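== Sequence entry ==
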Amino acid sequence: MKTIKFNGEDIITLDDLEEVKVEVEGINNKLFIVNNSKSMNINIEIKPYSELIVLDFNLNNKRQIMEIVHDHDSKFEYYNGFRTDGEYNLSYKAIINGDNNENNIHLRGVSLDNNYISVDAVIKEHTKGNVINEDLRILNLGGHAYVSPMLHVSTLDVIANHNTAVSNIREDELFYLMSKGVSRDKCVELISDGYLYGLFKKEEDFYKRIIGG
């Protein structure tokens, strides 16, 4: 297992690795994962008064396990975008052990095959001031998406939200684009690309990398 350490203001790109331990200290840390072709097991430990943003873009079929452990006064943001023509599995688990942590997951997927998404947050007893947000959206293009969002909350002093949506492309969107002379297949491509790549537009360096710019 390889260990990666963040010490503040770091940007690290994760290459093809199967097992990774990530230790985070300081703020403004970013981890880029682009088309890692292997199944991955990533364990992230976020120290107090530290933060990490993970941007994960995947066009490969694989299994991915992520576990994030918070102590206190930390923040974690996870952006996951995927489109695969085979099976994709994601298991995400956030463990909140202390006070004043924030954990946010933003997922956008384009489903062409079977996709299994499990998102779990465990907020321990007697903790205070924690925030957990799960925003999971999948565009179905002939596949099957199985999404399991879970919140295990053992305290009253918490903000915990989850939003899950699995949808098809709306016919009125297709009709509008086709009325401009665009073929149906091209319309589907444009809409799904906007859905997937739009998640990363605010991160300019990462966005250029995934579109080949």
Q: What stands out?
A: The longest strand covers residues 74-84. The mean pLDDT is 92. The longest helix spans residues 184-197.
